[in-house]
Design goal:
Helix content is 68%, strand content 9%. By secondary structure, it is mainly alpha-helical. The longest helix is centred in the first third of the chain and has 35 residues. The radius of gyration is 33 Å and the shape is elongated.
């Protein structure tokens, strides 16, 4: 059983998949950083300085006692954070689409380029020379 597990774990496909998972995770962080640092401030500027992460629909306000201590927390739907995550997802999906499309185009070009015709063998060249010499002596 240990031997079978070892073969499974060290098989190339599993290692490739693990590398792809780590790279995908890192790619997701890059896109999230791009969204949080560059896209959402522009969207906020377009929407009169609104920070989407703070947008919420309050269902019930937080309650405090006379001393200012919180008795019950605020209950709210954080739809702004959802919008940010949705934009993040759409951009990650779009960039992955572009990446896969580019890779497929590269593969297609490799397949479409015809292989050059094989060079004639020594025997074929000698046969051609013989035939040409016969032809020239006959004329």
């Amino acid at each position: 059983m240990i031997k079978e597990f070892k073969e499974f774990a060290l098989r190339g496909n599993l290692i490739d998949m693990a590398i792809a998972f780590v790279m995908g995770s890192a790619f997701g962080k890059v896109i999230t950083g791009f969204i949080d640092g560059m896209v959402m401030p522009i969207v906020g500027a377009i929407t009169a300085g609104t920070d989407f992460k703070l947008l919420k629909w309050v269902i019930s306000e937080a309650k405090f006692d006379a001393s200012g201590k919180e008795i019950s927390a605020e209950s709210a739907i954080q739809y702004g954070a959802f919008i940010t995550i949705l934009i993040d997802f759409v951009l990650v999906a779009f960039f992955m689409f572009l990446l896969i499309k580019g890779m497929n185009n590269m593969k297609r070009k490799q397949i479409e380029t015809p292989n050059p015709a094989p060079a004639p063998t020594e025997e074929q060249l000698l046969t051609e020379i013989r035939d040409l010499l016969k032809k020239s002596t006959e004329s």
